[in-house]
Amino acid sequence: MFSIxxxxxxxxxLQRELExxxxxxxVCFEGRVRDRNDxxxxxxxxxxxxxxxxxxxxxxxxEEAHAKFAVERVVCVHRVGDLDLGEIAVWTGVSASHRAAxxxxxxxxxxxxKARVPIWKREHYVEGTSEWLHP
Amino acid sequence: MKYRLLYFASLCDAAGRAEETIASDAGxxxxxxxxxxxxxxxxxxxxxxxxxxxxxFTDWNHRLADNDEVVFLPPVSGG
Lengths: 135, 79
What we know:
The complex is a heterodimer of chains A (135) and B (79).
Chain A: E1 2-5, H1 11-16, E2 25-32, E3 36-37, E4 40-49, H2 51-68, E5 71-79, E6 81-83, E7 88-96, H3 99-116, E8 119-125, E9 130-132
Chain B: E1 2-6, H1 9-15, E2 19-23, H2 29-40, E3 50-53, E4 56-58, E5 69-73
Parallel strand pairs in B: 1-5
Antiparallel strand pairs in B: 1-2, 3-4, 3-5
């Protein structure tokens, strides 16, 4: 599953969605708000999404992960709105019978989400300015 | 024809609005972007943007229909 969340991500709840009797490996990735980027001191981030297309593209990526790797469950949630330092911006979890597929699929999902899903990050700097990142 | 535009991130800042409905003679998305870039001072060239019509990604030669919802997507930065 893939979703956009306007409220804090509950990693423990999402991890329970990966449970299945046939699962022997669980890999989770948490992207968090850190206090620096490109040498500038950051004190928060804001994320904006084109919700309709972000959900559709996110689901496509999850379906691709199921097709490419021997995985059981794939879950990814991306936050929007204003986030403080340390908050989870994106959470990706994969369960599988074996670890190789779980690692590979988790990496695939987070890399594709960052590259393709229409979500934008605005960095707020300690010095008082802010700007959208368009790499 | 009338088109509904949604703006995100720095394009939203440049346009000074998150959405608008405009009347335009532009027949495809490339011509529509050129018109909007001139009006709002968008500095992205088309090769830096993706485009979506009615909630789905499409290409720059997409022919537009009356009341289409068009979104020009600046480079994404999720994660």
